[in-house]
């Protein structure tokens, strides 16, 4: 048996077993280790590929093998941290293996090599590894038909560190003086609570015990001691109230600043970031995670600091009273600290996993509720309910696993503190019997020990909430640490009044490892109307996204009026662009608010003028409250054409020098389209307009048509010129014309 390289050492004992089942000249091309069985219990197994067959030994099962054949197919999926690999034929599934995502990279390499071997069998050619099939970052093979590497795209789920919480100092720094004041008050309050046990020593030894032995009570001393106890209690209450109030206010402000900063950073990230994230997960991070951190800062962190102060001060007092008794008191401490360290390591990854699993539940809600019309239209209520039930069950299982660990830890700490208290009782009684200490000293010691062990138990319980807060902080800082792929320029260039000249010079753009735009050059004159046409996937929408700088070009440059758009502040640049999307998005609010979204200070007259220009004024007046009518979420309650016309009015209100319309009339009927086109005939005057249209007939009035195919420009000219040349545009037009005729004949039939 031959291995691909000396580094590819098969895990024991599979190397020897596989060698016994293969010929000496048979090379293992790829392999992956299995670490889950069919019931998702941990186990060891292996899947290996040679040039002739696929061999596998699932955990707890015997070896199986399948000769390579053109009909074989390998499918890969992952859900909730568990990967699945299936070997199938047209007749059905032959085998399925499960594994944790630690093995995902090996699985992708195995799939890539398997696909090359099967492709070689189908074509009769020797398997060849093409550059486009390998991720440039991690060198893992790209799954067939995928443009992005799933290994690199997947967020790295590293265990959160408690040190992550110290990064919150950047948000606490503006409130440092309030924090210092709160800490001083906390120190005073803690010290005040330690006064009463100290006063019990003279109260016992100089008042109660002498009285029990027949001496009269020293009333003056008793009053002074009781007054001291009352004064300590009142002082502790006053200082405790002040420090709790101040630190609670500060923690809420830190949490609010954290949410605001995270949202501000998130909303400035490029579309590339949002393309790889789920809405529900991002909502959970900014919402529930920041709330968890707020609770930690306002309650648990405060308790933790109080516990540390109390334990430290109590330890000093105990040693000052009786060092030997103090040493006996501290006997359980090393065991408790070791348990805290052990449990913390187990909880560290568990709570981060809980957050991710909860994100799955939130994702289903974020998908289903906005898409409820589609769910009901296809009668998929039961399916979505089952999805939610499975995600919720997974969330329950993960929480149960954490609770199993925590339920054992907390009572064990309590037991150790009780045992420690018994040891102190026994040792203290022995010292009293030898007259080494008085009864008052023992009583005071026991009072201090009660505080000491109570705080020690409280500190151990804070381990759980600390790890939860650390997991939440990590997920928030994952957003804050992400650098936008469309950065703001360090020294932005002031953009003068834009005339609308657009210059594209040798631009390239790659999405993942797939080249979408290649060496494209185009000059668009001010006030010119350009129509972008081509088959689906030819790069039209990508080109528009690059002009809007939703993405940055991989090579070349795009300039507006001779200024590279990468040197202009994004807000200044996009203020000159009006964008109408294929799928109009309206926010919850009034019609007027949606139209004025790009210009919040617009007057009602300006809003109405934009609506008239978009031929939306008439249907708006028919609504119950006119321009003050509430639009439901995502425009519920309005037709597709009505939503589109409001979207057009929104773009026109900002009076852009550049107007971009991406399939703007695809969602409207023919009559509505005619109204919009009549409006556009006037609106494009003096504006640079780039239009993508599904129906080529709507672009006949364009000054030039740019025909794209596979990311390159193949033809440029007006409608008549391109029709006369009978090239790519002519073929597109004829194909669309034939489709229209066939549709008409079908309707007549």
Automatic annotation (TrEMBL):
Write down the Gene3D superfamilies for this protein, in alphabetical order. Answer: ABC transporter type 1, transmembrane domain, P-loop containing nucleotide triphosphate hydrolases
Q: Where is the signal peptide?
A: none
Q: Where is the ABC transporter domain?
A: 502-735
Topological type in the membrane: Multi-pass membrane protein
The record's section on InterPro entries has: AAA+_ATPase, ABC1_TM_dom, ABC1_TM_sf, ABC_transporter-like_ATP-bd, ABC_transporter-like_CS, P-loop_NTPase, Type_1_exporter
Could you tell me the superkingdom of the organism this chain comes from?
A: Bacteria
Coarse class of the protein's main subcellular location = membrane
Domain ABC transmembrane type-1, residue spans: 182-468
- Which subcellular locations apply to this protein? Cell membrane
What does the record give under GO molecular function? Answer: ATP binding
- So where does this one cross the membrane? 177-199, 324-343, 408-431, 437-454
Q: Which keywords, in A-to-Z order, does the entry hold?
A: ATP-binding, Cell membrane, Membrane, Nucleotide-binding, Transmembrane, Transmembrane helix
Q: Does the keyword Protein biosynthesis apply?
A: no
Q: What name goes with this protein? A: ABC transporter ATP-binding protein
């Amino acid at each position: 048996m031959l291995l691909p390289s000396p580094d590819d050492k098969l895990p024991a004992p599979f190397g020897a077993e596989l060698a016994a089942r293969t010929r000496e000249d048979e090379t293992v091309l790829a392999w992956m280790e299995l670490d889950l069985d069919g019931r998702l219990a941990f186990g060891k197994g292996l899947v290996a590929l040679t040039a002739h067959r696929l061999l596998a030994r699932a955990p707890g099962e015997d070896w199986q093998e399948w000769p390579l054949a053109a009909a074989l197919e390998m499918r890969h999926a992952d859900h909730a941290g568990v990967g699945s690999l299936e070997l199938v034929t047209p007749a059905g599934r032959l085998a399925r293996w499960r594994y944790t995502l630690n093995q995902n990279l090996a699985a992708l390499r195995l799939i890539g090599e398997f696909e090359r071997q099967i492709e070689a069998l189908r074509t009769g050619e020797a398997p060849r590894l093409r550059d486009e099939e390998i991720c440039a970052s991690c060198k893992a093979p790209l799954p067939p038909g995928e443009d992005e590497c799933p290994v690199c795209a997947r967020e790295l789920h590293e265990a959160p560190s408690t040190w992550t919480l110290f990064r919150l100092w950047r948000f606490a720094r503006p409130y440092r003086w309030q924090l210092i004041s709160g800490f001083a008050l906390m120190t005073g309050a803690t010290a005040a609570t330690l006064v009463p046990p100290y006063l019990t020593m003279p109260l016992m030894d100089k008042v109660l015990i002498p009285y029990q032995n027949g001496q009269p009570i020293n009333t003056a001393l008793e009053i002074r001691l009781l007054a001291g106890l009352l004064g300590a209690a009142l002082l502790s209450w006053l200082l405790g109230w002040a420090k709790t109030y101040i630190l609670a206010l500060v923690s809420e402000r830190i949490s609010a600043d954290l949410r605001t900063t995270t949202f501000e950073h998130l909303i400035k990230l490029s579309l590339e970031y949002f393309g790889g994230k789920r809405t529900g997960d991002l909502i959970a991070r900014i919402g529930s995670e920041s709330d968890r951190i707020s609770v930690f800062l306002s309650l648990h962190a405060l308790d933790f600091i109080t516990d540390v102060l109390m334990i430290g001060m109590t330890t000093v007092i105990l040693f000052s009273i009786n060092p030997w008794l103090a040493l006996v008191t501290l006997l359980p401490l090393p065991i408790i600290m070791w348990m805290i360290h052990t449990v913390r390591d187990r909880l560290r990854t568990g709570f981060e996993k809980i957050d991710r699993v909860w994100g799955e539940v939130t994702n289903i809600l974020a998908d289903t509720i906005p898409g409820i019309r589609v769910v009901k239209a296809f009668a998929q209520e039961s399916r979505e309910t089952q999805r939610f039930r499975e995600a919720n069950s997974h969330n329950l299982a993960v929480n149960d696993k954490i609770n199993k660990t925590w339920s054992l830890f907390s009572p064990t700490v309590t037991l150790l503190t009780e045992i420690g208290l018994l040891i102190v009782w026994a040792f203290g009684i022995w010292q009293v019997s030898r007259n080494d200490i008085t009864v008052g000293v023992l009583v005071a010691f026991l009072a201090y020990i009660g505080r000491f062990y109570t705080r020690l138990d409280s500190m151990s319980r804070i381990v759980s909430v600390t790890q939860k807060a650390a997991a939440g902080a990590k997920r928030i800082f994952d957003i804050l640490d992400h650098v936008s792929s469309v950065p703001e320029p360090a020294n932005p260039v002031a953009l003068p009044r834009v005339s609308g000249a657009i210059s594209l010079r040798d631009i390239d753009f790659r999405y993942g490892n797939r080249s979408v735009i290649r060496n494209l050059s185009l000059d668009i004159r001010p006030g010119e109307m350009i129509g972008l046409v081509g088959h689906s996937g030819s790069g039209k929408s990508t080109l528009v996204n690059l002009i809007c700088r939703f993405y940055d070009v991989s090579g070349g440059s795009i300039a507006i009026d001779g200024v590279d758009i990468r040197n202009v502040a994004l807000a200044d640049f996009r203020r000159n662009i009006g964008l109408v999307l294929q799928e109009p998005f309206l926010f919850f609010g009034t019609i007027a608010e949606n139209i004025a979204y790009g210009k919040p200070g617009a007057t009602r007259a300006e809003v109405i003028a934009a609506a008239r220009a978009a031929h939306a004024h008439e249907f708006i007046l028919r609504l119950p409250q006119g321009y003050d009518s509430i639009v439901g979420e995502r425009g519920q309650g309005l037709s597709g054409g009505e939503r589109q016309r409001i979207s057009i009015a929104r773009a026109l209100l900002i009076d852009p020098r550049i107007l971009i319309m991406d399939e703007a009339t695809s969602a409207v009927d023919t009559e509505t389209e005619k109204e919009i086109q009549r409006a556009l005939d006037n609106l494009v005057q003096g504006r640079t307009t780039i239009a993508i249209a599904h129906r080529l007939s709507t672009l006949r009035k364009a000054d030039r048509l740019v025909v794209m195919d596979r990311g390159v420009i193949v033809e440029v000219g007006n409608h008549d010129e391109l029709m006369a040349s009978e090239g790519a545009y002519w073929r597109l037009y004829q194909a669309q014309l034939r489709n229209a005729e066939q549709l008409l004949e079908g309707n007549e039939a």
